[in-house]
Amino acid sequence: MKCYHCGAELAPTDLGRQNTCPSCGRDTHVCRNCEHYDPSFNNECKENQTERVVEKEKSNFCDWFRPHDGIGGSGASRDKLKSTAEALFGSRKSFNSKGAGSKGPNSQRLDPDAATKAAAEAIFKKNK
Question: pTM of the predicted model, to two decimals?
Fold first, then answer.
């Protein structure tokens, strides 16, 4: 088994409630090191009978803990998820201060207040 954080090899004796990784010092009896950990499931756990654990990278008392064979359970890292989202939607820097996208050949900078005003005017003109 490997540490979810640094990938260092862990022995079975390293997986106690109060044990830490000898390489990076992170807790080892954590959701991120468990085979049941999966961010796509409710409470990020495949085992539906467990109690909710909020902090997935801190030691817990879960009786369902089973060491995972790979690194870090099945979840992607926060940095990987962020870079994937930026590749798909563009970085935050590519948006103007009003939140409208500023990329692309046909893009316009939209003013949310103007759009709201135009929608309200269209509604009231219909009712007259």
Answer: 0.55
